[in-house]
Every structure is written in structure tokens, then in C-alpha cells.
Amino acid sequence: MSRRIIILLVLLAGCSSGTPPAGPASQAAQETAISFDQATGVITVNPAVNSKRKIGYGFPLGSVTVETLGHKEGELLFEYTHEVEGGYTVYLCRVPVSGPLVTIRLPKGGDTEPVTSFDLADCKFVREGNVFFD
Predict the structure, then answer these.
(1) N or C: which end of the chain has fewer CB within 10 A?
(2) Which one, of 19, 64, 73, 28, lies nearest residue 46 by Cα?
């Protein structure tokens, strides 16, 4: 019986997906739409890559989700969702495709505000809610 459990665990570990590429300034970040550096807690979005991709990462009191929606009129459109203890806000953001990499540094410890390389005031408010009551 224990042999079957060990084989099952080995198979599950071998079939699990790997971690996203590391290093916001690395070559991988330059070639992919979104990457995450676990060591620094930074999500990097490359505006030059026309791709639809969605990722989310948690921090002690909440999470951040980024979904790239593709290029439109020379800009990359992406949704940025910031959630803290169940309450969330979704923004639609636009950055020039020729612009620098977009970065979002996840909060550490008891902090709740991510540090973004873009100004949320320039983004359009989409909706807000609570994951427990929606």
C-alpha cells in the first residue's frame, strides 16, 4: 500500500506545473507577457507582448491579479485587481506598447498596498466587491 502512495506522489509531483520565470529584468520577462519573481515578489508585465494571460499571487492579507487583454490602438490593455481581506477593486489600465515594463511589487508583512510602476489614477475603475458576498 505504501508503495502505491509513493508512486502516486511521484506521479503528481512530476505532472504539476512549474513556477513562472524568475527575474523581472531577465530575458524571460522580456519575452513573456507576464512573469513573477518569487525572490523579490514582483510581477512584471511586458507591454510589447500582445497576449491574453491572467495570473494572480497572494500576500499575507490579500492578493493581486493581472489579466492582459491584448493590444488596442498602440496600447496594452490589462485588468489589475487588488484584493485585501475579501474586498477587491478592479481597474482597466492602458500603457503604451513601446513603454517600459510594468511592475507590481507585492506587499510584505502586514502591508496591504502593492507598489505599482503605473498610476492607478490613470486607470479606469471597473468594479468593486467582496469575494465573500458576491
Answers:
(1) N
(2) 28
Write out the DSSP string of 55-123.
Answer: EEEEETTEEEEEEEEEEETTEEEEEEEEEETTEEEEEEEEEETTSPPEEEEPP-TT----EESS-GGGS
The pTM of this model reads 0.76
Cell of 46: 511586458
Residues 67/74, Cβ–Cβ less than 8 Å: no
Task: Read off the pLDDT of residues 32-73 as tens digits, 9 standing for 90 and up.
Answer: 899 999 999 999 999 999 999 999 999 999 999 999 999 999
CB 88 within 8 A of CB 128: yes
Q: Note whether 91 and 123 are within 8 A (CB).
A: yes
Burial class (CB in 10 A: 0-12, 13-18, 19+), 67: middle
SS3 for 5? helix
The answer to whether residues 22 and 37 touch, using CB atoms and an 8 Å cutoff, is: yes
